[in-house]
Amino acid sequence: MNMLTIEDVGRDVLVQIWKEKQEEKERLVEAMGGSWVSQAREDLDAVKKRFFVFCMQYELKRLESDLWSLSAILGYNTGAEKMEQKIQQAKQVPLTLLFGVDSWKNPLCCPIHQERTPSLRLYEKTNTWHCFGCHKGRDSIDLLVQRDGLSFVEAVSQLCG
What stretch of H or E contains 31? Predict the structure, then answer.
């Protein structure tokens, strides 16, 4: 393939093409100082800021995930794990202590609906209770919530002492 030379095209044609390109360049440079370019720069800055915030949030979530995994591996307790441990500890408080009795065997009067005939049973194996009169019952936490009117968190705190 032959290359074009100045003689083939003509010097005047090349000068004309060069001038057109130079004018196009000048228009572009002038436009870059114009308002649409500054608006485009502001828009770009806003996008960059949003992207930066997104990247920081992503990095934070990644670090939290890594820390949670490391805490589990190292045996450190997180807040949720501590609360779950307290709930399990509260459920293990013997119901005989809460009802003030020495035995699991005898039916008791229900403190929830004030009855005369004992219809409440304590179950030693599961450390649960059930009243056959009002059909309420469950565990030690539920007893304090229903009998004493405590919130769930207050009942757990009281049982864990």
Answer: helix 11-32
